[in-house]
Amino acid sequence: MAGPPDDDPIPDESTESGEPSESENEPGEQDDPVTDDEPSIEAEDFEDTSAASSATAEKATQGGPGPDEQYCPSCGSIIKKQAEICPECGVRPTGTGSSNEKDRIAAGIFALLLGGIGVHKFYLGQTKMGILYLCFFWTGIPAIVGFIEGIIYLTKSDEEFQRRYVP
To answer: Which residues pair with 78 in a beta bridge?
Structure first.
């Protein structure tokens, strides 16, 4: 059975040997809380973990995402358009492979071949214009306009086509 704890402090090594221990300092010296056994943590250790965040913050302050970048819909960080998952928050962006994108080549071929009856307008979601083409197809004017529109569609870049003709 253990007895009550002693009230006597543990004897200090300096009292027994007469020399000060390593923990005692000379007058004017300060205790250094970091010993050689413990690793020191410095500011440069944290720079690598926040490098992506700071790069994203820098781009955001420089005027937004570049031509091949977009904002993450969840956290707002700048990510690549081809990214399947945001590296900051782990959310899958919904903007990739948008269902409202229309094929420029298909719209151009529809306009060249079937522009007289407005098929290209229906394909692009412009129903009212498609009906207007159908109403006047007997005049031949929609066929001429459709042919010209087909050439215009095929000469535009994909990005410009999406921006201008797809709602």
So the answer is: 71
Q: Report how far residue 22's alpha carbon sits from residue 15's, in angstroms, rounded to the nearest whole number.
A: 13
pLDDT digits (tens, 9 = 90+) for 104-148: 999 999 999 999 999 999 999 999 999 999 999 999 999 999 999
DSSP character string of 49-79: TTHHHHHHHHHHHTTS--TTEEE-TTT--EE
Q: What residue segments make up the domains of the chain, in order of their start?
A: 50-97, 104-165
Q: Which of 47, 50, 71, 49 is nearest to 59 (CA)?
A: 71
Q: Helix, strand, or coil here: 117?
A: helix
Report d(CA 58, CA 68) in Å as an integer: 17
What's phi and psi for 133, nearest 5 deg?
Answer: -60, -40
